[in-house]
Write a structure and sequence with these properties.
204 residues, alpha+beta, tt1808, chain A, 2 domains, two-stranded antiparallel sheet, 26% helix, globular, hydrolase
C-alpha cells in the first residue's frame, strides 16, 4: 500500500487580519514576526506587534540622544514606527528617522512620502519565512529599498549580537561593527550604542 505524504496546509492570506501586516513590498505583505502564533490562537495581535524590553529602551535612548545633539533647526527627528510611502502598495516601517526640514514641507497626517536622510532600525519585527537567508537577507533588501528611495544612511542595531550594520549610500562597502564602536550618524553627531546604555546604567 502506497503511503502518501501529508501536505502541510497553506495559510490563506484571506483570513490573515490586516493588522498583522507590518510592511508592503511592491504589493506583497510582509507580516509581523509571530503572526502564525496569532492565527493559531497562541498569541494576541498586540503581543506580536510589541517590541522587547531592550529594543524599546534603545529606541527611546536613541531618540533622546539624537534630539539633544542634532541641529534641530536643520533636522526633524521622528520615531514610533514611522511609515514611509515609497510607491503604490510599497510601504515600510522604521524605528527612528531623521529628515532635512528644508525638504520636508508641511506634515499631512499620512505616511511620509519623501526620503529621510537617516534611518535607524533596532532589531527585526518582520516574519522572515519568505526570506531564504532570513535576517541578513531582510536587512540587505530593506536597506537597499531605503537607499533606492533616497535615504543616505541606514544604521541597523541588532540587540542579540550587539552589532550595528552601517549602510551608506555613498560607500559601496556595507559593514558590520560591534556596538562598542563610534559611528557617525550625521554632521558631528557620533553614536556609541554601548556608551549610550552604560551612561543610563542599563543592565542587559
Amino acid at each position: 500500500m502506497a503511503v502518501v505524504a501529508e501536505k502541510k496546509p497553506r495559510i490563506s492570506t484571506r483570513r490573515i487580519p490586516p493588522a498583522l501586516i507590518y510592511e508592503m513590498w511592491a504589493g506583497k505583505p510582509v507580516y509581523y514576526r509571530g503572526y502564525q502564533d496569532v492565527l493559531a490562537g497562541k498569541k494576541s495581535i498586540e503581543e506580536v506587534m510589541s517590541c522587547s524590553d531592550l529594543q524599546g529602551v534603545l529606541v527611546s535612548l536613541l531618540n533622546g540622544y539624537l534630539y539633544s545633539v542634532i541641529n534641530r533647526k536643520k533636522y526633524l527627528l521622528a520615531t514610533n514606527e514611522i511609515g514611509l510611502h515609497l510607491a503604490l502598495n510599497d510601504n515600510l516601517g522604521n524605528d527612528v528617522v531623521l529628515f532635512e526640514k528644508e525638504k520636508l514641507g508641511k506634515l499631512k497626517g499620512k505616511y511620509f512620502d519623501i526620503p529621510p536622510k537617516i534611518v535607524i532600525e533596532v532589531d527585526i519585527k518582520a516574519d522572515l519565512s519568505d526570506f531564504p537567508n532570513k535576517a541578513d537577507e531582510y536587512i540587505m533588501r530593506k536597506s537597499q529599498k531605503l537607499l533606492d528611495f533616497g535615504v543616505e544612511k541606514v544604521l541597523w542595531v541588532i540587540t542579540g549580537t550587539h552589532k550595528v550594520y552601517v549602510i551608506d549610500h555613498n560607500d559601496p562597502t556595507w559593514y558590520v561593527v560591534n556596538w562598542t564602536e563610534n559611528i557617525t550618524v550625521v554632521d558631528n553627531c557620533v553614536l556609541n550604542i554601548k556608551q549610550l546604555l552604560d551612561d543610563e546604567e542599563i543592565v542587559y
